[in-house]
Structures are given as structure tokens and as C-alpha cells.
Amino acid sequence: MAEQNIYRAYNFVLDLGGGKVCYFTKIDGLCVDIETIDFREGGAGPAVRKLAGRVSYNNIELKWGLTESTEMWDWLMTAVKGEVSRRNISIILRDNDGKREVTRWNLDNAWPCKWRGAPLDALCNEVAIETLHLAHEGLTRA
Q1: Phi and psi (nearest 5°) for 71?
Q2: Is the residue at 77 inside a domain?
Q3: Is the pTM of this model over 0.90?
Q4: Is the pLDDT confidence value at 42 over 70?
Q5: Distance between CA 24 and CA 63 in Å, rounded?
Q6: Model confidence over 48-103: pLDDT tens digits?
Q7: What is the domain range of residue 102?
Q8: Measured between alpha carbons, how far is residue 16 from residues 20, 42, 51, 75 in Å?
Q9: Measured distance CA(69)–CA(66) in Å, rounded
Q10: How many domains are contained in the chain?
């Protein structure tokens, strides 16, 4: 087997569609769950087979340092108003130098479903980090 590069997890961006790229401190939740269904065949004795059931996708969690930009907040507010604005978006992993795309995960029909504001504490000097969760209906790797 040929030697392969192992990519680091720190060079990534989120493409919100239309070439709009956003940067985050953390993206988490890339996960596909396939429900398993136990099935016992007649006459097969005590053996239980496993069948594939429904497929579900975890919500994606985005974290970023609070700035003057309200783009993510505005997208959330469309859902709050009952006008869910779904987008096909991509999480892009770049090489260790950050220059070349090495893989991408495409999320179908993503929309904001949860927001958490930055904890505020007068006794700390940490960066204010906001969190947004995105629901989506499908995940492919390109």
C-alpha cells in the first residue's frame, strides 16, 4: 500500500453556497447513523440477522468568535420567523499548508435549528464564542 498523508483537523472552511466562505473555530457533528433492525429467520435457530434500517444525520455544530457580522444570526432569524432558508453547503478540509482542498463534505438542505450565545464573564479574558447548530437532510463526501 502506498504511503498516504494524514490530514490535520485545523485547516477547514465552510462554503455557504455561491462561493461565500466562512471561517469557524470548530465544526463538529459529521455523523451518519444507520438504524439496525434485528431479524430472526424462520428455521434458522437462535441466530439473529441484522438488517439496515433508517438513515439519520446528526446536526452540525459551528463555533466561531463573535464579530460584528450578523450573517449567521440573520439566517437563524429566517427559521425563527417560520421561513426556513435551506442551503446546500460544504465543509472543506484543506491540506496542512491550507492551500489545497483535500476533501469536502456536502450537506443537503441545511438550516439553523439552534443557537447559543457566548458566555459572558467579567472576570475572564477569553474570546466570546457563539455556537450554531445546523440540521440537514443528507451528507456526501466529494
Answers
A1: -60, -50
A2: yes
A3: no
A4: yes
A5: 6
A6: 889 999 999 999 999 999 999 999 999 999 999 999 999 999 999 999 898 999 99
A7: 12-31+58-141
A8: 5, 51, 36, 11
A9: 8
A10: 1
- 100 Cβ contact partners less than 8 Å away, ≥ 6 residues apart: 94
Q: Tell me the pLDDT band of 17, cut-offs 50, 70 and 90.
A: confident
Residue 37 domain-assigned? no
Q: In this structure, is residue 44 part of a structural domain?
A: no
**How far is residue 78's CA from residue 73's CA, in Å, rounded to a whole number?**
9
| CA-to-CA separations, 105 to 26, 55, 126, 130, 139, in angstroms, rounded | 15, 17, 30, 22, 7
Question: Exposed/middle/buried for 140, CB within 10 Å: 0-12, 13-18, 19+?
Answer: exposed
User: Would you say residue 99 lies in a domain?
Assistant: yes
